[in-house]
Input
Amino acid sequence: MFASSTGASLPYRLRLPGPTAVPDRVLQAAAQPMIAHRGPEFLARFKAIQDRLQPILGRSGVPPFLFASTGIGAMESGIINVAGPGQRVLIATNGQWGPVFRRLAEGIGAEVDEVVTEVGEPIDLDGVRRALGEKCYAAVLTVHSESSTGALTDLKALGGIVAETESVLVCDSVSGLGGAEMRADEWGVDVVLSASQKCLMCPPGLGIASISEKAWGVIERDDRG
Output
């Protein structure tokens, strides 16, 4: 709380891209008594959350993974499951989150190439296509909603380009999911990574990862070091 010029107390407002303001009904639900985390009520509630996320993700089949994590933790989980030491990844960068993908990829020993456009501009689809024609990549990494500028990636177009190769498309949709359309299956977005604290308007601390059949084929291989 803070005081206005009249002395009245006003609710505190976060003036940044996230975490977003959590609705009162969500806060009230979080204040309910705890339930047994190994009991049938929790399991039913957990499955209901997974099921209700599927249409938001545009995914059928395997339900999303939910785990205690920041958004960057979700991004790290995506990279480490589809790439490894010595494997090459391509990052489409147009703001502050492409470099985070780079740091995480280099941290596991992956070889990194980037297609960079001006901050705030759409990613360079032609540049991505050219890079994929010149080298083989384990994964293409992109950002759905670049929260530093508001730039939105054309995932349908990018997914069509990546689908022509053996690479998997990994998307940071931390600030996109729930606010911008996501059709993961239809657009060929193999790994969607998100978190609870932005457009989903829940408290921070929950990571989300949704995996396609193509990505599962990569994950199940034991060749990432």
Remarks:
- DSSP finds eight helices and eleven strands in the chain.
- The radius of gyration is 19 Å.
- The chain has a mean pLDDT of 92.
